[in-house]
Amino acid sequence: MIRRDRRHDDMGEIPRAWYADDPGLTAFFNAMSLAIEELEHYLLRSVRRFAETAKDTPLEPQVKDFLFQESIHSREHRRYNDQLQEQGFPAEEMTQVLRDRVKRMEARRTDLQNLALTAAIEHFTAILAHQLLDRPEHIRANGYPPLVRMWIWHGAEEVEHKSVTYDLFCMQVSGFRRYRMRIAGILAATRVMLPFLYWVTWRFLKTDGIQWRWKSWRVMLRVTLVYPGFMRRMLRDYIRWYRPGFHPWDQDDRALLFRWRDSEPGKGLT
């Protein structure tokens, strides 16, 4: 794992329809950015509560690197989301809705249950990142280059640290109780993340008065479900979580990381 203090100063003024000149596909990725910024804060809180339990173990430096990487992600997505608000999208309103929901969810759970949910959210982000790194051609060819670089950099770091929260959770609990808690975590993560993404997509389209137009959704649904179909292709990886002996690195995607690093200035070291 590498600490990269990436600052996407070349972001400039983000085009209103930055992905394939399509408002629906753009809105879906913008919705993901909104969710990421707020969820990163939750992940950081959950992991910090247990960071001391990794002290003097091989996991200790990984936890520290995870906290660093996620704090940078939150900072960069904040810059991205600020532009959405400036463009007239209800970014702050939607962020507050998610923030309130996460706070209620967090308050109802024990620290360990929150860590299980954190590990499940990290599974979602890791399998999405795998798809972006595995088939980057579509977004590279059709997206606004500064944002494409940001998304793929973020995806690479999600893959790098994909097992940290899971391993930290496994240090705290074992046996059937561990399995039961992580299944509860993935079910809660699914209930929170997927409805929010599509609802925010709808709200962003509503800003331009095109939420009921089929063509506003057509390209987004084709790209996410057909080709390259990253949401459809995530399903198999999502289901793996339910296997009792699951571990995030059962899917060894280091080759994707090496390919990304080789394509980066400085071999992705900064």
How would you describe the overall organization of this protein?
- This protein has one domain: Ribonucleotide Reductase, subunit A (Orthogonal Bundle), CATH 1.10.620.
- With 270 residues, the chain is mainly α.
- The mean pLDDT is 92.
- Helices cover 71% and strands 0% of the residues.
Task: Provide a concise account of the structure shown.
This protein has 270 residues and is mostly helical.
Task: Summarize the SSE layout with pairings.
Layout: H1 23-48, H2 59-86, H3 91-108, H4 111-134, H5 137-142, H6 145-160, H7 164-172, H8 175-207, H9 214-225, H10 230-240, H11 254-263
Helix pairs in contact: 1-2, 1-3, 1-4, 1-8, 1-9, 2-7, 4-6, 4-7, 4-8, 4-10, 6-11
Which key phrases capture this entry?
mainly alpha, Ribonucleotide Reductase, subunit A, 11 helices
Helix content: over 70%
Termini Cα gap: 12 Å
Contiguous runs where pLDDT drops below 50 for at least 5 residues: none
Q: How much of the polypeptide forms β-strand, as a percent range?
A: under 5%
How many strand units?
A: 0
The top-level CATH class is Mainly Alpha
Tell me, what's the shape?
globular
CATH fold topology = Ribonucleotide Reductase, subunit A
Number of domains: 1
Q: What's the gyration radius in Å?
A: 18 Å
**Structural class by helix and strand composition:** mainly alpha
Q: What is the number of helices?
A: 11
Question: What is the string of helix and strand elements?
Answer: HHHHHHHHHHH
Largest sheet: none
Looking at the overall shape, the CATH architecture is: Orthogonal Bundle
Q: What is the average per-residue confidence, as pLDDT, rounded to a whole number?
A: 92
